[in-house]
Design goal:
Blueprint lengths: L8 H22 L8 E9 L7 H20 L3 E7 L6 E9 L2 H9 L7 E8 L10
Antiparallel strand pairs: 1-3, 1-4, 2-3
Length: 135
């Protein structure tokens, strides 16, 4: 008999990051053009599930958020995600995002399913004249 194992909040974050990495690579391989999204943003997210939130609600929200992340990556908005060190029960994530404007990225982040449990800092990025990529 196979037992269903509940995924804890912190345990699913690597799956979310892997999903984004996979979707980003698949999108790049498909030849879809992301040039319509001109600005890049560095976004720091700290996720803390409120005490008393039912574990099933947490698990369901995290699984739906992982699907949403794959979709955002496929559309060229979510480029990269990194896990950052955090205290127990807290998840910190750093992401590289792309959108046409600050208003558009704010709307995208505000629509994230985990947004009610997040604090977010968004930094618009501007290419530096000495950027080695020459952009």
């Amino acid at each position: 008999m196979i037992q269903k194992r509940k995924m804890g909040f912190i345990a699913i974050i690597p799956f979310l990051i892997a999903a984004v990495s996979f979707a980003t690579g698949a999108h790049a391989a498909s030849g879809n053009d992301r040039s319509e999204h001109k600005r890049e943003f560095l976004i720091s997210m700290t996720v803390k599930v409120p005490p008393g939130t039912p574990p099933q609600q947490v698990d369901d929200t995290l699984l739906r958020e992982a699907q949403s992340a794959r979709e955002l990556a496929a559309r060229g908005h979510l480029l990269r995600l990194w896990s950052l060190p955090a205290a127990p029960g807290i998840c910190r994530i750093l992401g590289l995002w792309r959108a046409g404007s600050s208003a558009e990225i704010a709307g995208i982040v505000d629509a994230l399913l985990l947004r009610p449990w997040m604090t977010v800092e968004t930094i618009p990025l501007t290419p530096h004249p000495n950027d080695p990529t020459g952009r």
